[in-house]
Amino acid sequence: MLILALILFGIVAGGVAQLILGRSMKDIDWTTAVVTGLLGSFVGGLALSLATGHGLDLHATGLIGSILGALLLTWAWGFWRRSREG
Fold this sequence. Notes:
This protein is mainly alpha-helical. It is built from 3 helices and no strands. The chain crosses the membrane at residues 33-51, 58-80.
């Protein structure tokens, strides 16, 4: 059950990251949201939880770290795509 909750929150974190970066709700790229949300959730959430000493328990720091990680990855992915397109 925890794994399903983490996947769902990762997807939401990816969507929120795209909204923060200026996309409208109908323009969200859900494939990118899923990938960046899950990776950002894993990296950002885990890093911030471990840095604050909460370990693997579910705390607000992990949730904030998840959104920040997804935000960073979404921004980096968009930057990389724009630089390749010319």
